[in-house]
From TrEMBL:
Belongs to the FAM234 family. It is found in: Membrane. Its main location: membrane. Residues 81-549 form the FAM234A/B beta-propeller domain. It is a single-pass membrane protein. It comes from Amazona collaria (yellow-billed parrot). This is Family with sequence similarity 234 member A. The chain crosses the membrane at residues 49-69. SUPFAM superfamilies: Quinoprotein alcohol dehydrogenase-like (SSF50998). It comes from the Eukaryota. InterPro entries: Beta-prop_FAM234A_B, FAM234, Quinoprotein_ADH-like_sf, WD40/YVTN_repeat-like_dom_sf. PANTHER family: PROTEIN FAM234A, PTHR21419. Keywords: Membrane, Transmembrane, Transmembrane helix.
């Protein structure tokens, strides 16, 4: 301290300079701080303004979506609806697709009458057809309201729906094969006739079903159609344009040794048609059929042949040499790991064939299968095959067979009549299936064989292997039956078409859709074994809450 005072006395001017310098620095610092404070204050105001503007915009958007912009209305589906047609007969066709684009599946069917329903008041004369004639009708899946009706043919031999680009339309279309011979393309959305052509299929013919859609071979940008007609020991092949219905090329002819049926098998890079009679299986590539119908060679990527298959096909008869079976009842396609395999069912055995090398994967003893094999899932994500086999007069056995090994996973014996509908499956959220089966379960010790079996619909789910739910008892003649999810992953329903068929006298035809849960809640619980693990109401409640999941 003394040193500082001494220095100040010795250098008084220097001390004054230091003080001035310090005051100047303090002033500059204050100005900088003041300027920074002003900038921060201004920035803070901008941030506040931006926050409130953003908040205001968010409120406007929320308000707009909540009150001004209407949300899409979800169709409210009725749990059960009926649609009745008087003085009518119905055909054994039931197609399901979204007709009115409301994301709910609708029902398309065919009936024969002098006039349509009162909803449209259409007559056969509107399409130049004699009365009575066959109508094609679409009914809303939500409430049973008629969406459209259209006179299509004098008689219906076959109807195929869900065809893309038919007639060049954007909506899925329906092809009606009529009698006398006619092909009619119907727009699935509006019911309008896209095109109609007469054909000469010859006398005493049978249409082999289903009609197949093939790649565009006439270069008009629309898929084409191939139709097989059986007459005696011949199969006639017709290729028609999907855009205008005109025949492409001439009529091809194939020779077989009996009454044929067919399936279409898609391999990795080729497509084959397998025609089977009681004793033989014939294989034709799509390229073979096109060449036979047009007399021309064509090289398209979609018309390739499989070298492995060509080695096993007799070049003269087109028989498959490695597949030799007798009394063939059904051929079915079974999805495999990389491609479809072939299930051959004859009178006493089911055999799964590897479609790649035509080698046997497994065999299963099964007698007189009475319905088309059906796919379902007994175990999670493990594909199974449902087989119904006759085991005696008015009796059948229902089996679920694992597709990979041929092991029987579950079986059930039922009394049944010959006209009983086939089974159906619905995919559930636990990656398994619900199985719907027709017949009459006979409680052990209660002999009912003295009378004709009743038509009862049962539900089975693998979570309860010893439980059946009896859903309904139908005394009417059932023409067609199907079960499906009417909306994606929800609204599980079944559809019944009941009434007289074309060979019978006209009467009342009834089309019904019913939600599965309605029957589950009122169902009768049947114990397949004497051990009851839960109460009956608990079983109903659990299966009522079961969720479904659409499979791609």
């Amino acid at each position: 301290m003394d040193n500082k005072d001494s220095e100040a006395e010795i250098h008084p001017l220097k001390t004054e300079d230091v003080k001035v310098q310090e005051n100047l620095e303090n002033s500059v610092e204050r100005r900088i701080v003041s300027k920074q404070s002003s900038q921060l204050s201004r920035l803070s105001r901008w941030r506040t303004a931006a926050f409130f503007i953003s908040l205001f915009l968010c409120l406007i958007i929320v308000f707009a979506f909540s009150f001004i912009i209407p949300c899409p209305e979800r169709p409210v589906s009725e749990r059960t609806w009926f649609r009745n047609y008087n003085h009518t007969v119905a055909y054994q066709f039931l197609a399901i697709q979204d007709v009115n684009k409301d994301k709910v599946q609708d029902v398309i069917f065919a009936f024969k009458a002098s006039n349509g329903s009162s909803s449209f008041n259409r007559s056969c004369l509107d399409e130049g057809l004699p009365s009575p004639c066959a109508f094609v009708a679409a009914v809303s899946g939500t409430n049973g309201r008629a969406l459209w009706e259209r006179p299509a043919a004098e008689e219906v031999e076959w109807m195929e729906c869900g065809i893309k680009q038919l007639g060049g339309a954007e909506a899925l279309g329906c092809l009606v094969v009529g009698k006398p011979v006619s092909l009619t393309a119907v727009d699935g959305h509006t019911g309008e006739i896209q095109w109609r052509h007469s054909s000469d299929f010859g006398a005493n013919y049978t249409v082999l079903t289903p009609v197949s859609v093939i790649p565009d071979v006439d270069s008009d940008g629309v898929q084409d159609l191939i139709i097989f007609i059986a007459t005696g020991d011949k199969i006639k092949t017709f290729i028609h344009s999907g855009k205008n219905g005109k025949q492409i090329g001439s009529t091809g002819s194939l020779t077989v040794d009996g009454k044929p049926r067919y399936i279409r098998l898609k391999l990795v890079s080729s497509s084959y048609f397998l025609f089977y009679t009681e004793n033989s299986i014939y294989a034709y590539s799509l390229k073979d059929l096109y060449n036979a119908a047009t007399g021309m060679e064509i090289n398209l990527p979609s018309l390739q042949q499989d070298p492995q298959w060509e080695k096993n096909i007799d070049s003269t008869t087109h028989r498959l040499s490695l597949l030799s079976f007798g009394d063939i009842r059904y051929l079915a396609k079974i999805p495999g790991q990389s491609q479809e395999n072939i299930l051959v069912v004859n009178s006493d055995m089911a055999t799964l064939i590897n479609a790649h090398n035509l080698q046997t994967l497994w065999t299963l003893n099964v007698s007189r299968v009475v319905s088309e094999p059906l796919l379902g899932y007994y175990k999670p994500n493990v594909l199974g095959i449902v087989l119904e086999s006759e085991i005696g007069p008015n009796a059948k056995k229902v089996m679920v067979v694992e597709s990979g090994s041929g092991t029987v996973q579950w079986n059930l014996k039922l009394n049944s009549i010959a006209e009983s509908p086939g089974p159906a499956t619905l995919p559930t959220a636990d990656h398994r299936s619900t199985f719907l089966i027709w017949g009459e379960y006979q409680v052990p010790g209660n002999d009912t064989r003295s009378r004709a079996p009743l038509q009862k619909l049962y539900l089975f789910h693998p979570s309860y292997t010893n439980v059946l739910l009896e859903l309904r008892n139908s005394t009417d003649q059932i023409i067609a039956f199907n079960a499906l999810l009417f909306e994606r992953s929800r609204h599980a329903c079944y559809v019944l078409l009941r009434g007289p068929q074309p060979s019978e006298e006209p009467g009342m035809v009834s089309l019904m859709k019913r939600k599965l849960k309605e029957d589950v809640s009122r169902s009768r619980v049947i114990w397949l074994s004497q051990v009851a693990v839960d109460s009956e109401q608990y079983i109903r409640d659990r299966l009522y809450r079961m969720r479904f999941q659409s499979r791609e």
